[in-house]
Amino acid sequence: MSLHNSGNFGSIENGPTILVLGASLMQRPAYEAAQRRGWRAVAVDRDPHSISRAHAADFIQADISNHEEVTLLASEYATSHPVHGVFTCGTDFSYTVAVTAARLGLPGMPPEAALRASNKKLMRDCFHQAGIPSPRHHALSDLTDESLAAGATELGFPLVVKPVDNMGARGIRLVHDKDQLETAVRLAVEQSRTGRVILEQLIDGLEYSIDALVFDGRIVIVGVADRHIFFPPYFVEMGHTIPTMLSGSKYTTLIEGFRSAVRALGIEYGAAKGDVFLSNGEAVVGEIAARLSGGYMSGWTFPAAARFEPVEAAMELALGFHPRSLPDSIDDVQPQKTSAERAWISIPGTVKEVLGLPSADTLSNRSVDGAAELPMKDGEVELIACFPRATPGDSVSFPTNNVEKCGNIITCSPQREKAVQQAETITRAIVVRLEPGNARTFDFLFGSSGHEAPWAFWPTHRENVDCLADMPRFTTSAVTPSSEITSSHTQHRGNCRTTISVGYLPLPHPERETAPDYNGHTLCEVLDLLRLRYKVAPQVELTGGQSLPGLVLGRVFWRALLKGGLQGALFIIDTISRDVPSHEELARLTGRLWNDDFAR
């Protein structure tokens, strides 16, 4: 297609109008780019209260997953408001964009190419026909036992179950046997808009995210990031770092594999985002999307690292203009700095408060619904943004996908190790404190709901293991040993003012448990943090000086801490400090604390 100079809008009065599909946080960079450039950005979203609507010049309420609805409403809007482009980023609805642009006669990629990039079954078939290395797959024709057995026989275990049409790792799970397969397929169906599921070969290798702009026969790389995936059997991205550590022939292999996949799908114009593995020296294409990435990459980390705005450049293409920041000599934009994004998470429960967020006096005036951005400081580690997603009163879960995390930190520095270290240091300091007594939290710590989630810690030193195996669940003591950490809590009973103490029985050598938890804390660091939050009370007394026995937790405390980390320990202490349950009630609440948790 013929592109125009992006600095000259000719007869377009007051700048061009562009429809932006989606008005969530991930689309905010698009609205900010429009404001910088003097464009009219019209938000299209189902939610009239979407957080980025305030940045839009106008609003169309529509379900962007429904291409027919969006096309109809966009056509009606265009009869009275000239429209010059259609765009999205950070959503999975590039097909809606392509269909709408085609209907309005606007720049865009062929709808069939966008459809292939939105449906994993069509994508895999396309790659197979073109000889593009990608996971072997089996699309389930139905959900019968026979169909599942056929897929398992063809691919073998382990394999990966995915909905054919979702993003953010929702509904994706690694399975090792038939029973797991049946459960995973049911969950994937729930996360599929069309109720269809695909089984795929598990690829052994590191995974990378790639963003590109496609025009004039060129596929210009605008970002390559290392992805940090955790918590099998799920695939949760706990952050990314840009630029990638890959270099030389390995980098070339990765990029050539990505470009081949983009061409095979027929993406000739617009944007492309890839998840590509490097496995046994070969680029294996996981997925290609016909859009720029979400997950803070295209809108935050890459602009911070490279001083280049991929979203703005992609919007220029959507308007039919040549990106003014991409001269013909550039086919791979190279960052000058490193930007690191890291997430913080929670065990299940209800948020009481979020501790340890960057202090308000360090924040700039730029904030949108809890998304705060900090000013840049050249030559130092820069805290680019802090995005709290879980706030008091919210229900939270241990993440099984990329939309269940509690918040994100983004840093930038000329030195890679400093950017990474600062992001991880900040996220380690953030603690989501949960409401005490919550049944979901109890079930995760002491019941069966958390069996797939990793333990924060698992004791390995023999003396600690033996101590836990022999330790009682809890006991009482009139005098709490000074080595125990206790929580003091005041209650009023009749006319008496009573101080209740909750302590715990110590391990002999916690310092020998050196493996960090999933937040990066060692066991001793968590115990130290608890000391900062709770007073040491060697003796518990009534106002009149009369001794009152205190509750001393044993395996109940350690089960909560070892399973749920600092959050778990705070939860059990907060719960008992608040309600002071009877021994019978405490035994009932922690009744699923199995005897073989810490078997010798």
Which runs of at least 5 residues are low in confidence (pLDDT < 50)? 5-11, 361-376, 479-484, 489-500, 535-549
Multimeric status of the protein: single chain
Helix content: 25-40%
Please outline the major beta sheet. 10 strands, antiparallel
Average pLDDT works out at 86
Number of domains: 4
**What is the 3D form?**
globular
Widest sheet: strand order? 14-13-10-11-12-16-22-20-19-18
SSE blueprint and pairings:
Blueprint: E1 4-5, E2 17-21, H1 28-37, E3 40-45, E4 58-61, H2 67-78, E5 85-87, H3 94-104, H4 111-116, H5 120-130, E6 137-139, H6 145-155, E7 159-163, E8 173-175, H7 178-190, E9 197-201, E10 206-215, E11 218-230, E12 236-242, H8 248-265, E13 270-279, E14 282-289, H9 297-306, H10 310-318, E15 321-322, E16 338-344, E17 349-355, E18 367-368, E19 371-373, E20 382-388, E21 395-396, E22 407-413, H11 416-429, E23 431-434, H12 439-446, H13 462-470, E24 474-477, E25 487-493, E26 496-504, H14 523-533, E27 550-553, H15 555-579, H16 583-589
Parallel strand pairs: 1-15, 2-3, 2-5, 3-4, 26-27
Antiparallel strand pairs: 6-9, 7-8, 7-9, 10-11, 10-13, 11-12, 12-16, 13-14, 16-22, 17-21, 17-23, 18-19, 19-20, 20-22, 24-27, 25-26
Helix pairs in contact: 2-3, 12-15, 14-15
